[in-house]
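Hi V.,

You were right to ask for the full record rather than a summary. Here it is.
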Amino acid sequence: MTVSKRILAATLLVFAPLALGACGSEAAPPPVADKQAIPDLAFEDSALILPAVTGRPGVVYGTFINTGDRDLAIRTVAVKGAGKTELHASMEMNGQMTMGETGPQLVPANGRMKLEAGGLHVMVFDIAPEIAAGGTAALTVTVAGGDSATFEIPVRAAGDPR
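Predicted structure:
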């Protein structure tokens, strides 16, 4: 065996266990967003309302409060344990109520943005069975610029008072 083949063989013996160990391990989960990443943002009077019929989407209501001196544009909202979430707006067109996905939503400096029935809200699709009434859900908000914050919000059944 030549010297270069011996070096290659020795290198493989040293690093092969590391490579094989990596194959069996799961990727590290992404870190949970830190509330302090957006220190001026709060989410109050919030709740994830579960659907009355399993398999249908739930909805998130509440009020975002921006105590800072700059506007915040909410780009995405995610709920841990949900397959997908969408910012939605309801509106009346030609006497008919309709709703659909929206783009980023502004929480003005020193202002509020309310999520409510008949207005802006978050639709929550494919909710995992672990998300149950009486518990909490982790809602992560990402704003323009990439900062994010996570809020623990109560989970309520469809008929529970808001």
